[in-house]
Amino acid sequence: MHYPQLRLRRRRSTPAIRELLQETRIHIEDLIYPLFVCAGANKREPIEAMPGVYRLSVDLLLEEVARARQEGILAVLLFGVTESKDELAAAAYDAEGIVQKAVGLLKERFPELVVITDVCLCGYTSHGHCGVVKDGVILNDETLHLLAQTALSHAQAGADLVAPSDMMDGRVKVIRDQLDENGFSHVGILSYAAKFASAFYGPFREAAGSAPSFGDRRSYQMNPANRREAMEEVLLDLAEGADLVMIKPALAYLDIIREVRERVLCPVAAYNVSGEYAMVKAAAAQGWIDEKMVVMETMTGIKRAGADLIITYHARDIARWLQED
Fold first, then answer.
1. How many CA atoms lie within 13 A of 105 on its CB side?
2. Binding-site annotation, residues for Zn(2+)
3. Record-annotated residues binding 5-aminolevulinate 1 (predicted)?
């Protein structure tokens, strides 16, 4: 059937019809709220490159999560910020570390909250890389037991999901084995399965203090030009025991999200990263865009590409806008 019998504008003729026939919807339950937690008390440190995002001490983190919960957000992703750094990232797997303390207090106060922890070493190493370094080389296998130790310490603190973001080969299997052997088979793994060596991470490195002191991360994070390799990474992580997979960043990798969604059955997450957030905030501050409309269009695009879950710094704004609408 063709025009004039078929008129697609009939499906768009009124607001009610457009709402009725909308194919893709964003729900508050789709959102994961990333947060930065630091040592101390009553600390709320603004991140210049990410307006509206802060490094929070645990007491203020609890207040922020309370507000997010009231707005309907079900899950948070925690990143630790520390000044205690060394070659082997000892603060990452310290049972009394900042993330471990935060997890325990969050689960005590909000037992229904889904607490996800970022498992990586870069924010805790003196050199800023995601693994053990020897003679300027980031070592893969020597890093795995430190990542597993970090994941186990998060599980012991009460984390529901651990999220390895380092991109070392084999880390999902080693973490899964470590969790299972220590009685934490119920703790899931949300793997940063296809994490690209992206220019969109700049503001995050300011937030977490995790910029590498030499070189870059291209020997372990993925080449942004590679699509087939992304599927290899995803399928390997699932074979090793990942429960969910993540694509990071989101906007320049919608094709990857779509392909992963079509080829796997597990939940798929996408990380709307710091640079993507910062660009919207900067343009909105200049009055060049309508922030709400651009953010919601962006989230719809990520969801339409196939993401079940979206990790985004816009989470609280989106939750409020959805409730208002």
1. 18
2. 120, 122, 130
3. 205, 217
Q: How far apart are CA 300 and CA 319, in angstroms?
A: 14
Q: What is the pLDDT of residues 157-175, one digit of tens each?
A: 999 999 999 999 999 999 9
C-alpha dist (Å) from residue 215 to 72, 129, 220? 41, 9, 12
Q: Tell me: the pLDDT tens digits for 68-110?
A: 999 999 999 999 999 899 899 999 999 999 999 999 999 999 9
CA torsion sign, 10 to 11 to 14 to 16?
positive
CA distance 266 to 109: 30
Q: What is the pLDDT of residues 248-281, one digit of tens each?
A: 999 999 999 999 999 999 999 999 999 999 999 9
User: What domains are defined for the chain?
Assistant: 24-324 (3.20.20.70)
Q: Does residue 248 have an active-site annotation?
A: yes
Residues annotated within the binding site for 5-aminolevulinate are 205, 217, 274, 313
Binding residue ranges: 120, 122, 130, 205, 217, 233, 274, 313
From the list 85, 101, 173, 195, the catalytic residue is 195
User: 138 by DSSP, 3-state: which?
Assistant: strand
Alpha carbon distance 116, 161 (integer Å): 5
Using CA atoms of 51, 62, 99, 101 in order, give the dihedral in degrees to the nearest 10.
Answer: 160
Burial class (CB in 10 A: 0-12, 13-18, 19+), 9: exposed
Which of left, alpha, beta for 278 (phi over 0: left; psi -120 to 50: alpha)?
A: alpha
Q: How many Cβ atoms are within 10 Å of 273's Cβ, its own excluded? A: 25
Q: Which of 101, 173, 248, 281 is catalytic?
A: 248
- Where is the binding site for Mg(2+), in residues? 233
The helix/strand/coil state of 216 is coil
